[in-house]
Amino acid sequence: MNDQILAELITIRQLLERAIAAPPAARPAAPAPAGQTQIPQPSQLVADPGSVAVHFGKNAGQPLSSLNDRSVEWYATPKEPRVANNGKPFPPRPADEQLANAARQLYHAKRGTLVGKAPIAEMSFAPGGSATADGIEENVPF
C-alpha cells in the first residue's frame, strides 16, 4: 500500500515538473459569466457619447450620461435584428447604431477597455488670427 502511494506521488511530481518547465499555453479570453453577454467594442467612436439621447422606451429623450450603469449596459448589449415577413433581417437604423456605439463607448471607457481614441473636435484656423472650433470663435494674440 505504501509503495503504491509513493509511486503515485512520484508520478504526480514528475507531471508537475514537466508542467512548470513547459511555457504556458495561450488562453482565449475568459467568457462572460453565466447570464451576461460580452459587450463588443463600438464600431465607430462618438465625439460626446454621454450626450447621445435615447430615442425610444421609458428613457426616451434622456442622455446616456444621466442613466445608471445597468441601463447603459443594456443599450450596449447586441440585440437580435428585426426580421421581415420574408425572413430577411431589416438593416439597422442609424439612430440605433449611434445609440449602441455611444453606450458601448461609455461602457468600455468606464472600465478602461476602450480600444482606439475618441474623436476630437476639428478646429479650423481663419485668416486674421482667430481659431474656430464647433462654431466657437476665439481671438488668438499670435
Describe the structure.
The chain is of the alpha+beta class. It has a domain at 39-117. Helix content is 32%, strand content 8%. A three-stranded antiparallel beta sheet has the order 1-2-3, with no helix packed on it. β2 and β3 form a beta hairpin. The longest helix is centred in the first third of the chain and has 20 residues, at 2-21. The radius of gyration is 27 Å and the shape is elongated.
Layout of secondary structure:
Elements: H1 2-21, H2 69-76, H3 94-111, E1 123-126, E2 130-133, E3 136-139
Antiparallel strand pairs: 1-2, 2-3
Widest beta sheet: strand line-up:
1-2-3
The overall strand count is 3
Radius of gyration: 27 Å
Sequence of secondary-structure elements: HHHEEE
Q: Overall mean pLDDT score?
A: 80
- End-to-end gap: 91 Å
Low-confidence runs: none
> What class, by secondary structure content?
alpha+beta
Major sheet attributes? 3 strands, antiparallel
> What is the count of helical runs?
3
Descriptive terms for the model:
single chain, 142 residues, alpha+beta, three-stranded antiparallel β-sheet, 3 helices, elongated
What is the gist of this entry?
The chain has 142 residues and is α+β, with helices and mostly antiparallel strands. The chain is built from three helices and three strands.
